[in-house]
Records
---
Amino acid sequence: MYRFLLSRQWVILTLVALVLIPVMIELGFWQFHRHERRVAQNALIEDNLRAGSVPVEELTSPGHTVPREDYWRQVTATGTFDSSHEVVVRRRTSADDRVGVHVLTPLVLKDGKVVMVNRGWVPAADDQHSFPKVPPAPRGEITVTGRLKADETTGASGIKDLKGLPDRQVMLINSAQQQALIGRTVLGGYIEQTAPEAAGGSPEQIAEPDHDSIGAHMAYAVQWWLFTAGVPVGWVILVRREVRDRRAAAEGDDATDATPEPAGATA
């Protein structure tokens, strides 16, 4: 009765089911690991935002790569803004998803070193070749507080570092690039300014990173594992249905063969 399982159709169906099971198990674990990473990142953001502020030079130095455990740490830096080397970072969105630019201004520290400060978001110019209207940075000595961030790279951010851009416009916030442009020693990473707030609210400060939502990764993981369990169950149901249909067909054939011929029938 089960010899039909050796037919070409059923062999292919069985092989597909056997392939789907490990694939969907792996997809479930992939989503589960994404959930774990999101939970860990949320905890890291919350801990670093709650930690007290420290001088920026305690966490970074020229050529330093900011490690993930220091992302979003609260830091302070005291110096004077160098507006002559200010640049804007293209294709950045505001808190309400408007497309514009980020204003990146060098802050010259007392020892002559520089730390790059992302002062916030402003609308882009009417055309891509013009420099946007940027509120001037405060004059004189100032103490900036903000979140420490790592240098942006194409590999980490997915943003292409386009060449041939208009003067004073960049695609990435990268201390090595800015050091080459400014001609001064620049600390690794940059500060995402949170205080003091800009007069008139422009540039708009960068919103605090989301550390509350965890996404639907765990739900997706459970769904993939339920699909995994459904494959053998579905295969068994199909086999039982096929057996039932074949038995019904066989019983129908037997009943036809057992029906007596009408009286008077001739050979």
---
Amino acid sequence: MGIAREVFGDALPIAERYAAFLADAGVERGLIGPREADRLWERHLINCAVVAEAIPDGAQIVDIGSGAGLPGIVLAIVRPDLRVTLLEPLLRRTTFLNECVEMLDLTNVEVRRARAEEVAEEFSMDVATARAVAPLDRLARWALPLLRPGGELLALKGERAAAELEEARPVLQRFGARTTELLQVGHGMVDPPTTLVRVVADREVGPGGAVGRQQRAPRRAKGSRKRSS
């Protein structure tokens, strides 16, 4: 909890209420596995909170396949300057997310019940996040059309991150990716550090991969990076 206090700061009481709700209703409704209840902080909450290191100030975020709100709700707690849309197609999960938002009084969060493909023409986000949703090639098809030119996909990945990145290159090229890289965040907070695949969108992208004009990318946040392209 010392690390949790360092990561969440004054927002720790809100994070504690969220953790308690995950361990209770989240497990009961099948959004969190029963074995996860005892390791929510190190495996889930802190692991997601450190992603905030890679997100610019005041960004508009869409969390794809938000499920139990990881990482979307955690990011909204630790970074109240962010505007977060939790995108989730399943009713039982959006019901849970709405209950979380109301209980935690998260005024910077909106819950949207839809698939990414259904809202691609509505969204022009700064950042898209996703955790344990799909392989990167499939995730890129959903996420890149939701981003403005220069917007970033931040996909939380495990030990196969580099392999997934290589496998996804044809799709990333088709959908107008400008650059890709592996990024680790949370050094000294989580062990091992959280691994992200960052994909910067080069152009406006339609749901089928049609691309439009180019613009400059937003300011990058600090972190240790491994350049991939």
---
Amino acid sequence: MAESLLLSTARVTTFDGDRLLTGASGFFFERDDKLFFVTSRHVVVDAPSKHFPNRIEIELHTDAVDLTRALAISVWLYADGKSVWRQGSDLGGEIDVAAIEIPRSAIPAGAAMFAFTPGHLPRSLDEVEVGSVLLVVGFPLGFHDVVHHLPVVRQAVVASSFGVRFQGQGYFLTDARTHRGTSGAPVVMRIPSAGGKLPWKLLGVHSARMDMSTRDLQLDESLGLNLAWYADILLTLTAPSPGVDAVLPPQTQAQA
């Protein structure tokens, strides 16, 4: 059986009907008796790029021993004309994280998967310091072990002060080498002493690369920095009722 971290993360593909659009990354998050799939909000809708899928497919392992056995479950993004994902915003603006509740009945019996929980979130800012070693788990450019349907990881460090909202936004920086398709990947820190089946702290959700518009494309290398939204937004997005600190669009209320 593969490491539990690799089975917490799944490849997600977006569609407009049967028309393939994009590929990205995501992970499972469990709270109480509810299961959510978490990815970047721009994976499910992105007006600037005119990206408007109406469904996604999430790839799952169906056998904990034979990892070559997998299937994709289809999840519609709209019901009765309303979006089913949960998203939020704060004083800095919209947060690029989306959580979609997955009915337990949609998960095949015997599925090999692990889910993060609120217990995997940092309890205090003192647990993480600048330079801490992290992993970003995902599917860069869709690349992965196509035989065993497993993601790959990139090593990174915390590249900005953890707990300080970088430039007033709800994210921190990492320095992992990332590509398109990594959007929605979990950003985690190993905690060996934590024990359990998933001994990692969930710190953030990878969103995008950061660069300088003034960079000379011939003389200057890319900054190699990325945005990771603080994972504690999931406490709001997965709450039984929308929290007062989040602004959830009315179309998402049906799933709250």
